[in-house]
Design brief:
This protein has three helices and no strands. With 120 residues, the protein is mainly α.
Length: 120
């Protein structure tokens, strides 16, 4: 392979590594967005307090819990799909299973928070 072809391949490999790292940052950003949705649901409980009927406030909070679970699922789905198309060269990508496990744990946590909100 000629020197210019090797340099071009190096640049391509580095670009792919940058894309992998950007994918991980995007995944983390979506996970933060999901957690913000859970925090909003908890905040609604504090804002509505003794609002009557209580089921109405709880239903609105539940919408944000469901949204958080969807965000967690969509984030891992998109991140794993993107990661599956890329090859890591110098950067070492987070394993897809780790992203899935994090998403599952966050989703179960959000569901647990929703259950607690309904129990209050």
């Amino acid at each position: 392979m000629s020197s210019s072809n090797e340099l071009a391949q190096d640049r391509t490999d580095w670009a792919e590594d940058r894309t992998i790292l950007a994918n991980e940052r995007t995944f983390a950003g979506w996970m933060r967005t999901g957690m913000a949705s859970v925090a909003l649901a908890v905040g609604l409980r504090a804002v509505f307090g003794e609002f009557e009927p209580t089921w109405a406030a709880k239903a609105i909070a539940t919408i944000f819990i469901i949204l958080a679970v969807y965000i967690f699922w969509a984030a891992q789905e998109a991140a794993c799909k993107t990661l599956g198309r890329l090859n890591d060269n110098e950067a070492h990508a987070q394993p897809m299973n780790r992203m899935r496990v994090l998403s599952i744990v966050f989703a179960f946590g959000a569901i647990a928070v929703g259950g607690i909100l309904w129990a209050l």
